[in-house]
Structures are given as structure tokens and as C-alpha cells.
Amino acid sequence: MSMVSLPGLRSLLDTMSQQRSLPPLAVQAALKAALLKGYERYRRTQVRNDEDFPEDYFENFAVKLDLKAEGFRVTATKTVVETVEDSDREIPLDLAIKKGAKVKVGDRVIVDVTPNQGDFGRLAALQTKTVLTQKLQEQQCKYIQETFADRKGTVLLGKVLKSDARGVVLGVSGGAGQPLVEAELPKYEKLPNDDYQEGAEMKVYLKKVFDRPSSKPMLRVSRATSYLVSGLFSDRVPEIRQGSVEVKGVARDSIPTKPDIAPRTKIAVHALDPEIDPVAACIGKLGEHLQAIALEIPGEKIEVIPWSEDPATYIANALAPAQVEGAIALDVENQSAEVLVPPDQLAVALGPEDQNLQLASRLTEWKITLKTLPEP
After folding, report:
1. Which of 5, 38, 243, 250 would be a feasible disulfide site paired with 226, CB 3.0-4.6 Å?
2. The domain 319-375: what is its CATH number?
3. What SS3 class is residue 165?
4. Collapsing DSSP states into helix, strand and coil, what is residue 212?
5. Which distant-in-sequence residues (6+ apart) come within 8 Å of 346 by Cβ?
6. What is the pLDDT of residues 287-326, one digit of tens each?
7. pTM, full prediction
């Protein structure tokens, strides 16, 4: 069988796989599609005029890569007939038998139609190069969609590839042995205490999988969203993964308005099994779960509080570490609550720049107002 030589084919495939963050098989599929287009160009210049080829004319043709010999062949699937009317789709019975095939009329056989090395000219090569760029882009889009569409809303491990004033580009993996795919971490999704030096690894939340390629990565991730925290707890705490403990809400101030205020998160949890302490389960033995999660978002204070279906109890829990011992007046119609706190607990209940109060309000979804009696 004849072959068109492609010196450096294996090296070319490896390079394209790395540059495009594509598995080798996806790169091969793109190259075969591009070479087939090149073969079509060759046929147009050698055999027929352009208008003689319908769009689907070459659907019975295929390209086969030979990685060991570094080249490619073109084959056509043809039907065995007595009298040939279309040589691109039919082969006479006597010729098929001469080629060594044990066939009869009506059978389909694969025939080598590879052009000579010199015949596959400059125009065909240019056509191949042009189409290859397009096919690689299509394969990249397809791979990202198939790999990450179902992982939207989950936590992934990212590796910093580059960082500038606009944001960070990380590489995230679609699985063991798969190439890293670029993901955009915009400036507004970054954390103030993170180290974004090249090579740094960190957990990120996959917010968006775009359905078409552009100048930016097709994946967008976040470090600032509250969903990252709930995702970290889900990945770390067995009781959450098993469904015996559920996360009822998360309120996060990941980028405080002032640099001297520490980032802070409140997460409310509830156990479906009355025998389980949900807070203890999330903190872990000797605090192992909470410590491991804190390492993923350095410098951020994380508070785990028990959820309650009683709004007054839930509000009091959410205002921790303040000790709320006074009355809580609820206005259910306006979803507002007035909380009476001891004078010595007012500053704690408010927090720096009212951070604790605002997080409690967001977590419980109640507008909370603090009141205190004057000290005697």
C-alpha cells in the first residue's frame, strides 16, 4: 500500500496535544479530518471541477494515520459490482478478487486510494493546514463540553499557569492522565490572601462552561463564591457526602471592604439523623475537617453553626460568637427581626464594620436589627 510521508508526525501530535490541552486521540481525529479535506482539494485539482462534487461526496473516504511509519493513507469503501458506473463508490468484481478479497457482488470492500507523495501538492497541503486549525478548535470545544459540562457547580483542583492584572489562568484536569485545560479566574473572583505564583495549586469552584470558543478560556472558575466553601465541606465531610448531614446555607465575606478585616464565612448545617451532631461532624475529630478546609482558603475564619427551623433560634445561632440571651421580636410579614443583646455583646454581635451582623442576616435571610438596654 502507498503512503504519503509526514516526517515528525508523532512529535507534531504531541505538541498539538499539549498546546491545545487535548487528548492524543482528539488531535488525531482533527488531523485526519483535515487531511481528508486536503485530499478533497487534491481531487478537485486533479480530476474534476469544483461544481462536480456535492458536499457529501467524500463521505465514503477515510484517512488512516500510521504513527510508526509517520505518514497517512487514504481509503475508500466501495461496493463490488459487475459493471462500474461510479469508480469512487464501486469496484468491479474481477479487480476486487485480484486484490485478494474473497467477495461477491454486493459486498463492500476498503480500497487504498492514497495519492502519490508528489501529487499531494501545495494547495492540498495549505487546505489541510487551514482546516486543521478549525478542526482542532472544534475538538477542543467538544472535549471541554463533554468533560466539564457535568462538573459545573463542583470543586476542582487548579494549577496557576499565568497571572496578570486582569486575572489568573489556571489549568484544571478532566481526570487522571488527562491534559490540563485552561480556566479563567477573573480578578473579581480572586482572594486577597492567595498566592498566585506560577505553579501554585488551589481548589476552585467551576462557575461557567462556555459553549463556544473565544479568545478567553472556555471555563470560568471562582475562589470568592460561597459555593466553594460548601463544596469543600461536601468533599471533606463523609456525613455530607452520604446525605445524613446537609448544608442549609452559606454566607461569605471573602473580599472585605477594608484590608484590615479578615475574610469570614458562616455555614449552617443540619442533621437528618437525630443521633448525629452536625456541627461536630463538620468540624471533625480534633478539628481535622475544619483545619483542612481552612488551609484551602488561607486567612479566612470559618464558623459552623447549627441550623434550626425556629427562626429565633436560628438567628441567635447565626449571631455567634455573640451570646444572645435577650428577646427576639419577629416580624414575619417583613422577614425582619429585632434582637436584644447584652451591652457587652453588642460589639461582638456587630463585628468589624458590621461584618458579623451582615453575615447573620444573609445566612438566615432575615433583616436583623440589634437593640441593647442601657447599662445600669
Report:
1. 250
2. 3.30.300.20
3. coil
4. coil
5. 322, 370, 372
6. 999 999 999 999 999 999 999 999 999 999 999 999 987 7
7. 0.76
